[in-house]
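ok trying this again, last paste got cut off
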Amino acid sequence: MTVTASALRQNIYKTLDRVIATGIPVEIVRRRKRLRIIPVDQKSKLSNLRKRDVLKGDPESLVHLDWSNEWGPGEWKE
């Protein structure tokens, strides 16, 4: 849909509501230039995360592992 700036001024709220409801952009013509009002979906930052299976096996078995042979005093470095 293409409208002039004057028509947009008269019906700004109806036009914005139509863009939100339909998702169809509206083009505005002003001084032979075209502008576009488009809906932008704001996604949660957490929606970009992918599920990963990092731990395989029984988590309870990790509680009883003996790590004393793998790590000793003086090996911790920051």
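PB: full thing came through this time. The helical segments are 5-10, 12-22, 59-63.
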